[in-house]
Write a structure and sequence with these properties.
Elements: E1 6-12, H1 19-34, E2 43-49, E3 52-58, H2 65-68
Antiparallel strand pairs: 1-3, 2-3
Length: 69
C-alpha cells in the first residue's frame, strides 16, 4: 500500500447499457495501462465498488485538459 495521491474516475455501471459501451471503456483502460510516457497520465488500477467502476490514475493538480483548454 502506498500513500500516493491519485485521481479516481467513477463510472456508474448503469452507463454500460450495451456491450459496446463496456468494450469501449475496457479498451480505453487497456490503452492507458500500456502507455509509458511522461506526457500521458499514468493508469494505476480499477476497482468495482458497489454498482460503480472506479478508475484510479495519476493525480494532476492543474485540472483536466478540457478545463485548461
Amino acid at each position: 500500500m502506498t500513500r500516493d495521491i491519485v485521481m479516481v474516475r467513477v463510472v456508474p455501471m448503469e452507463d454500460f447499457v450495451s456491450e459496446e459501451a463496456f468494450q469501449d471503456l475496457e479498451n480505453e483502460i487497456a490503452v492507458m495501462a500500456s502507455c509509458r510516457s511522461p506526457h500521458i497520465v499514468h493508469y494505476d488500477r480499477s476497482y468495482v465498488v458497489g454498482d460503480e467502476l472506479w478508475i484510479a490514475t495519476e493525480y494532476l493538480g492543474g485540472g483536466t485538459l478540457a478545463e485548461l483548454v
